[in-house]
Task: structure prediction
Amino acid sequence: MNDSTLFRRLLIGSTCAWITLLALIPFLMLVAASFLTRGTETLVRPEFSAANYLHLLSPTVFSMAVDSTVLAAGAALGCLLVGYPFAMILAQASPRAQSLLLLMVMIPFWTNSLIRTYALVMLLKADGILNNLLVGSGLIAEPLRLMYTPLAVFIGLIYTLLPFMILPLYAALKTVDPRLLEAGRDLGAGPLQTFWRITVPLTMPGIIAGTMLVFLPALGMFYVSDILGGARTMLLGNYIRDQFLVFRDVPMGAAASVTMTVAMGLLLLLYYLASRRSGRELVQ
Amino acid sequence: MMRWLQRLYGAGVYLFLYLPLVVVAVFSFNSSKFSLAWKGFTLDWYVRLWQNTTLMTTALNSLIIAACAATLATLLGTMAAFVLHRYRFAGRRVLFGALFVMMMSPDIVIAISLLLLFLALTLQLGFTTLLVAHTVLCVPFVATTVFSRFHSFPTDIVDAARDLGASEYQVFRHVVLPLAAPAVAGGWLLSFTLSLDDVIISFFTTGPDYEVLPLRIYSMVRLGIKPDVNALCVVMMAVTVVALVLSRKLLKEKK
Result:
């Protein structure tokens, strides 16, 4: 065996090794734990049970899961509705402006989301900026009670996750060939028709990627719910955290996490199908 | 008319993104302690921050973990990108898929799977576990950044080097790596900010011996707003902006 073959084997081998050890095995452990039973002395007992998944369907847990899903899906939809027109404007700006405008989206994207959530508190508090403005301008007589409501959590999720929607949409819009839009117009399509029948289908991978990047974290961001929503458990993330750290019920927390991963799997499948249809792999 | 509407809309979205951050920045210089009323300019909160040893220690912890995790992630990520770019082997598509799934996985799932691994290995939660977890978080981002750079330069150079008798290691060390250097550095900086940005993974994978800044801020924020938190947030935002602007410069160069 010569040195080059050795080098090649060493690189491939060590890459596969760390992925197996640090990604594959932990994930398999998570799946395994979700089918085991909670122990008294040890955290889990090696006894097969599907009870954890059945418990997710019990009325209180199920309604929390539904609420969390609605909140996260609402945040994803909100981000899409706000982000799509914005990404279109961004993609059409002059190259010089684009670079700066894009950087200005990336700064919040990379800023600690806990800090951004905290920043939102200053705005939404009863004696915060927003209420001061509204009362001061005479639009409302009494300060609005925004903090510690589902609405505040909803606003918080949109606020922290909006850049995660804008960036993949922007990337997808940049790959749309302008000649296709021209061809559509030449063939007699109006602006609305070119949008719905050319732009939207071609950017579907970006739409799904953005939805995934908003929806999944939105299910998990327990600190947004803690800081803006108060003590009530509003997100699946709060539930998972409490199972691990408060109730010490590892199998139950694992089952809830696996459910989230299944949701991710479904979205990834959709993404794969959409990018095959639009004929390009955005990731690569 | 349409143009103005577009500009107005764009400005509105930026206002939404930036107004809260600007408010925090402004109030970090406000001398009033409790109310939101402006009582005059002060740097007191920054001085207090500097003198607060627990906060400074956790800040240092965060920077150390970010630098170490970024370095490890850059090594592993660059290696993965090179493997994917240069070699064709049986599990290549699986490896690709695995990195993509890792990048898309919700933080809480990554955190909890790794927590289970650490518990099974009976590791004490602290510096090492946090380092491993943040490295896992960052590697896919480095791998994709560096991989796309590998893809953008001509393959002839590598073939030429091979024809002239370079070994695989020499190709990697003297041809591919220098060409990809800006992307590697950019990947390091992205990892650095990614690690500083993280809350959820730190929450589950570190112990009381090694507290990091976001967790400290989390417990402070839950107790109510204090002006030195504002100052701290501004400092962290500044670090993020500097790292981000640098990484953009590096990634753009020679494109």
About this structure: Residues 53-252 of chain B form a domain with the MetI-like fold fold (CATH 1.10.3720.10). The CA atoms of residues 118 and 129 of chain B lie 7 Å apart.
